[in-house]
Amino acid sequence: MPNAAGPKSTRVVWIETVPTPFRCAQHERMCGAMPTVQFHFVYTHSAPDQDWRTRPEEGSLSVGVCTTDAIAHQGRVRTWLHAWRKGGRIIREALSPRPGAVIVSGYADPGRARVIEWCRRSAVPLILQADSNIECDQAAGIKRLVKTALVRRVVRASSAIIVFGSAGRAYFRRYGAADEMIFDVPGECMEDAFRTPATPPLAALAARLAHDAEASTNARADRILFCGRLIDRKRCDLAIAAFVAIAQERPEWQLLVIGDGPRRLSLQAMVPNDLRNRVRFLGFIEDHQVTAAIFRSSKVLVHPADNEPWGLIVHEALAAGLGVITTRAVGAAQDMILSADAGTIVPTGDLPALAAALRDATSPERAARFPSAAEASLEAWKSRVDPVRGLRSALTSVGAMVEVKPLPAAATSLR
User: Fold this and answer.
1) Cα separation of 214 and 331, whole Å?
2) Whole-number mean pLDDT of the chain?
3) Is the pLDDT of residue 292 over 50?
4) Please, what is the angle between helix 288-296 and helix 200-209, to 10°?
5) C-alpha–C-alpha distance, residues 2 and 41, integer Å
6) Do 162 and 185 contact (CB within 8 A), yes or no?
7) Which DSSP category does 3 fall into?
8) In whole angstroms, how far apart are CA 261 and each of 49, 173, 230, 322, 326?
9) Share of the chain above pLDDT 90, in %
10) Predicted confidence band at 212 (pLDDT cuts at 50, 70, 90)?
11) CA distance linking residue 342 with residue 319, whole number of Å
12) Residue 55, exposed/middle/buried by CB under 10 A (0-12, 13-18, 19+)?
């Protein structure tokens, strides 16, 4: 939602991928917190990789949207020409008149590369936004050479870089970015929904979805959650295998799988017949309040991803008071899980370590400490990092926002 332009406002064009609920909520927060900036959002893709039915902020411009512009196809060779042309449309339609700054989310398709080059040639401050994660930077051989050349060029063209956390900062430092040009602007979940106990109707609905007739209140059940797309890199297969490994030792515990994707049938086939009533697949749940109610009535989140640039799900779990079992590949893990009582970070792809962490997390003593430890970790993280403060600092550093400092008291008095 673009904020009204004031007499001293600066127009900032923000080029995003898709309008997910989380991005839209954060964009609205940015607009409200920075009234001297006139944000103009441009969405380059119409189809998120989940079935979110969200509308872009009022007045934003959606460029080149068509049925083939699914975010899952971004960067594929067969879409390069279309992406290049779309970049030209953005330049003609969104970047005229000349903005005070351009924020570009990502750099891995020709359309974005075209906009980045336009900013360089036109001397318009470019703020690169990326969720890149050094733990996932595994290119080798010729791919490493090409990637290094590409990313270093993008870094040189950028006036500032906004990242999600420490793994993103380390990533861009690897490619030549000075630390002072990098600012932390992490994604945010709809935290209030996950912190607030569910209303009785929501709690009852969550219980029905979880096939738990007894859990119609906000009481926590002996329940492990996996929540994410059912694709290879999310490693739901590891979550299921780890649960199977401890199931006999933890007969009261369930595993709920929230999400959908191409691996669903093969994942369901992994579940032994005698555990079918304890491993439930709930599918994709669009209503975040329902998802939050299920989180609030559970105890542990398992997120064993092989590649997860940030991982908003960690924020949601901590807000709901869950313990988090995840891997080093998840960007949010190292920044947000600040004590052993709040969760465990295991090596990527290590099933024995994951099973051991779940066994420990499901012990009564450990599970009882999760709610208070999760809250403490989340508050400690928030005391150090604020997305609005980070973006404001990035805009100020490129001259797109002037910080107004109050005059000394003696200078403000009239005589």
Assistant:
1) 36
2) 86
3) yes
4) 80
5) 8
6) yes
7) P
8) 9, 34, 4, 24, 20
9) 67
10) low
11) 11
12) exposed
pLDDT in tens, 191-200: 888 988 877 7
Task: Take residue 340 and report the two structure tokens written for it.
Answer: 């052993």
Q: What is the pLDDT of residues 28-50, one digit of tens each?
A: 889 889 999 999 999 888 755 55
Report the alpha-carbon distance of residue 89 to residue 80 in Å, rounded.
14
DSSP codes, 49-74: SS-----PPTT-EE-S--TT-BGGGT
Side chain identity at 170, as an amino acid letter? A
**Helix orientation angle between 236-246 and 351-361, rounded to the nearest 10 degrees:** 60
For residue 406, how many C-alpha atoms fall within 13 Å in the half-sphere facing its CB?
A: 5
Whole-number Cα distances in Å, 250 to 33, 81, 343: 47, 54, 18
CA 276 to chain centre: 31
- Say how far apart CA 311 and CA 333 lie, in whole Å: 8
Whole-angstrom distance, CA of residue 403 vs CA of residue 407 = 12
Q: Distance (Å, rounded) from C-alpha 103 to C-alpha 12?
A: 7
Residue with tokens 């994942």: 267
CA distance 414 to 367: 62
Angstrom distance (rounded) from CA 130 to CA 172: 10
Answer whether 362's CB lies under 8 Å from 253's CB: yes
> What is the maximum alpha-carbon separation in the chain?
86
